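Hey, can you fold this one?
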Amino acid sequence: MNQSSRQEVPQTVTETEIEVPHRRLHKYDKVKPGEQTVTIRQTGPGTNGEPLAYVHVPQDAPKGGRRARPPFTVSAPNGEPLSSVRSLGDGVYEVHGADGTPIGRITRRAGRTLPWPRRVHWSVQPAQGGEPLAGEVGTRKAWAVFVLISPLYFVCWAVMAAQGAIWLLLGEKVEAKKEAAWEMEPPTWTRWRSADEPDVAIEYRTGRRYRLVSPRLDPRLAYVQAVLHVWDRM
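Sure. Predicted structure:
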């Protein structure tokens, strides 16, 4: 076969879907010593929730809020260290490999309402250079709908809170808890992509699940971004 008759085989893009539970992140100071804070699991068709990595947050780490999450480490299922994360403050996080080599920086820019609306913005900058991956939380249309229906939500919330108070007075704590648990979650759909690449590299829709697409993105950075993002959703 001569060179001209050969056909190039297109590169297959492998997708990985992961799930990052969030409840124990909020209560990391109550996790038993020696236990992982969170297990990052593979999910999606053909999987059985296999663990991909473990997240460890020190119990005595200070609670810094959304602008400065506590330092944490990520390890493989076999215990091999993968990465460590520390906050530089103001929503900036440095990510290092197991040997201490920088592998990237993740930045969160806070959203706001006034003087003009701005969505929460995330960026992932690999240490080896290149265009950063950028993602904004929620679409413009979703936020517009959210703002329009918010007054109706508050009316419904007030009614259900009153019903919960009545159930509580009657001694029905379970029913009161059900009424109080109802809430409307703001838009969460987030897609990370670089300026020089139109395809999505990381995608979050709902359910604490993330779709990892880009073969150029270090999975260690993707795991850390997913943890910080889901931590932000609490």
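The chain is about 25% helix and 30% strand. Let me know if you want another pass with a different chain boundary.
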